Amino acid sequence: MRVLLVGSGGREHAMATAIARSPLLDALFIAPGNPGTAALGTNCAVRADDVPGLIALARRERIDLVIPGPEAPLVAGIADACREAGIACAGPTQAAAALEGSKTFTKEICDAAGIPTAGWARFDAARPALDYVRRHGAPVVVKADGLAAGKGVVVAQSVAEAEQAITDMMTDGTLGQAGHSVVIEDCLIGDEVSLFAFCAGETAVLIGAAQDHKRIGDGDTGPNTGGMGAVSPPTGFDRDRQEAALDLLVRPMLREMARRGTPFTGIIFAGLMLTPQGPQLIEYNVRLGDPEAQALLIRLESDLLAALAAVAAGELDRTDIRFSSQSSISVVMAARGYPGKPVTGGAIRNLEAAAAIPGVQVFQAGTKLDDEGRLVAAGGRVLAVCAAADTLREACDHAYQAVKAIDWPDAVYRHDIGQRALAAQD
């Protein structure tokens, strides 16, 4: 099978690593990829959101299956373009990808399907949004309605914070088009977890779960990011509870999407809050998470490519997904300045020494090779240092040994990934 994997982040490096192990694979192309994926296949200089360019590449390389990694190509309609070109695609149509592309659409689906979620209101102008939060009070969650690369959510603990978020998004345009409309939600209280499943039509097959750490600083302080680390599986959220959450929060969505004539095929990522009243939906994403995918995929024992091919064919009865019983962790090493303007260009060394630590894998994201062939930082989130072990404590110890082995002076990272889960185990 000739495969085109779309994307350039740590998630795609982890996916490429798993796909490269498949006996079904004949050739792997990654667009645009990164220096880490270059060791697993052929990187191609086509942007992840360049749908016409990706289709031209797929035709030229006689691709059998397109696997979109990030959300941008899905929201831009790559699955529809693949269908027109007669190429299989393991992802949802543009209409179905609105589950991630529009917070309003997701809330409307939840209301129609009876899915537990936070109370909400949508605004197209700043003044009524400001009036609403002043009447409602805090805490509230302010969300950009469109795609914002994981940075469009502000959990405002005060009215002043909510006002600032609304002004930033709607008046100052800090998130561009994504923030021209906002959804303001009641603030759910509990533990947040990420649930993943393969879906086709009204059928969902559980992949697994992880727990992300969104804020930049230790102790969940500072601004939200695209994710600073994850553990898998989450403490207290075993497979029985994961299946129950699928029944409550995912399968009703699939039935409602099918009823509307926009059935969902691909990977669903349901962000959940485990509240005292039970699980409630925070949001849907239409792909694997990052850095959750890295923590999940290092525990994968089955054939990811075979599973994705079965999803694309709508044959979920053939979807085999098996993970080891180990615990795993991913620790994101970001560039100083992230989630604002990151410091780029700094050399990164000793990845081989880090990867030699038992159970460790290092996935690249915002990296590139400079003119001298050195690996350097080229983005905000740069590396995901992952470890799997028989216990979460051992996995944490090995991951942080690997982080310390990497020579990159500009790195920032959280020192407490996994500590909340460890405390819950004690």
TrEMBL record:
<dbReference type="GO" id="GO:0006189">
    <property type="term" value="P:'de novo' IMP biosynthetic process"/>
</dbReference>
<keyword id="KW-0436">Ligase</keyword>
<comment type="pathway">
    <text>Purine metabolism; IMP biosynthesis via de novo pathway; N(1)-(5-phospho-D-ribosyl)glycinamide from 5-phospho-alpha-D-ribose 1-diphosphate: step 2/2.</text>
</comment>
<dbReference type="InterPro" id="IPR000115">
    <property type="entry name" value="PRibGlycinamide_synth"/>
</dbReference>
<keyword id="KW-0067">ATP-binding</keyword>
<dbReference type="GO" id="GO:0009113">
    <property type="term" value="P:purine nucleobase biosynthetic process"/>
</dbReference>
<dbReference type="InterPro" id="IPR016185">
    <property type="entry name" value="PreATP-grasp_dom_sf"/>
</dbReference>
<dbReference type="Pfam" id="PF02844">
    <property type="entry name" value="GARS_N"/>
</dbReference>
<keyword id="KW-0658">Purine biosynthesis</keyword>
<dbReference type="InterPro" id="IPR011054">
    <property type="entry name" value="Rudment_hybrid_motif"/>
</dbReference>
<comment type="similarity">
    <text>Belongs to the GARS family.</text>
</comment>
<dbReference type="Pfam" id="PF01071">
    <property type="entry name" value="GARS_A"/>
</dbReference>
<protein>
    <recommendedName>
        <fullName>Phosphoribosylamine--glycine ligase</fullName>
        <ecNumber>6.3.4.13</ecNumber>
    </recommendedName>
</protein>
<dbReference type="GO" id="GO:0004637">
    <property type="term" value="F:phosphoribosylamine-glycine ligase activity"/>
</dbReference>
<dbReference type="Pfam" id="PF02843">
    <property type="entry name" value="GARS_C"/>
</dbReference>
<dbReference type="GO" id="GO:0005524">
    <property type="term" value="F:ATP binding"/>
</dbReference>
<dbReference type="InterPro" id="IPR020562">
    <property type="entry name" value="PRibGlycinamide_synth_N"/>
</dbReference>
<dbReference type="InterPro" id="IPR011761">
    <property type="entry name" value="ATP-grasp"/>
</dbReference>
<dbReference type="InterPro" id="IPR020559">
    <property type="entry name" value="PRibGlycinamide_synth_CS"/>
</dbReference>
<dbReference type="InterPro" id="IPR020560">
    <property type="entry name" value="PRibGlycinamide_synth_C-dom"/>
</dbReference>
<dbReference type="GO" id="GO:0046872">
    <property type="term" value="F:metal ion binding"/>
</dbReference>
<dbReference type="InterPro" id="IPR037123">
    <property type="entry name" value="PRibGlycinamide_synth_C_sf"/>
</dbReference>
<dbReference type="InterPro" id="IPR020561">
    <property type="entry name" value="PRibGlycinamid_synth_ATP-grasp"/>
</dbReference>
<dbReference type="InterPro" id="IPR013815">
    <property type="entry name" value="ATP_grasp_subdomain_1"/>
</dbReference>
<keyword id="KW-0547">Nucleotide-binding</keyword>
